[in-house]
Specification:
- The protein has about 210 residues and is α+β, with helices and mostly antiparallel strands.
- It is about 55% helix and about 10% strand.
- Strand 5 and strand 6 (about 195-200) form a beta hairpin.
């Protein structure tokens, strides 16, 4: 849409409630710090200016301003995990723990995100430093702290064609074992018809078909 219209920015309507749901889903799925850090306030041409505003406040503001807001029917479909979190899980947590759970979850994301972004920047630098002739140097990877090494392996896999959304914790730990627990094991199959393997002192990525 930005390219078609020549817009400098695209504003997304995600609210603090959406952020809280994202954090809770990330916790439930064991998705790690990146997911628990929630949605970014901005990336590329996109911005989320309402992450500090509740969903109820945005709805009320639309009524006051006479704006006709569109209600997405998917937001009421319990077939989606996010809707179940919104309609069932968060109300139970609010009843058990008191009001403010959504705000606390969103605040957790706000506190974690700078740490995650800093680690990602270090990982991007380490990825370049670990580059070998046809892959990543095992020796260089082994010298990295685990928090950086796993990020470097993940980033390298995605750059090689692995599907980011389907690249799970198990895939990353299996790749890490090629560095830290090498026993001559075979390749690791990754989502996206890709495999990671160790050869000639490097971690390499090759098509699996």
């Amino acid at each position: 849409m930005a390219e078609r219209t020549g817009a400098a920015l695209v504003l997304l309507g995600h609210t603090r409630d959406d952020q809280a749901e994202t954090v809770l889903l990330g916790l439930a799925r064991g998705s790690g710090g990146r997911s628990v850090a929630g949605m970014r306030r901005g990336f590329e041409v996109f911005r989320r200016p309402l992450l500090d505003v509740t969903r109820d406040d945005t709805a009320e503001a639309c009524l006051i301003e006479g704006l006709d807001a569109w209600a997405d029917p998917h937001n009421e479909d319990p077939g989606y995990a996010r809707v179940r979190v919104r309609k069932q899980v968060l109300p139970v947590l609010e009843d058990a723990l008191g009001p403010g759970v959504s705000a606390a979850l969103a605040r957790t994301a706000e506190l974690l995100r700078p740490d995650m972004e800093f680690l990602d920047e270090l990982a991007a630098l380490s990825l370049r430093e670990c580059a070998g002739s046809d892959g990543l140097s095992v020796q260089a990877l082994a010298g990295l702290p685990q928090a950086l090494r796993t990020r470097v392996l993940r980033a390298a896999a995605v750059a090689a064609g692995a599907l980011d959304a389907e690249l799970a914790y198990e895939h990353v730990t299996a790749m890490d074992a090629l560095v830290t627990g090498w026993r001559g094991q075979r390749w690791i199959d990754l989502p996206g018809h890709l495999r990671a393997l160790r050869a000639d002192g490097e971690i390499r990525f090759q098509p699996s078909m």
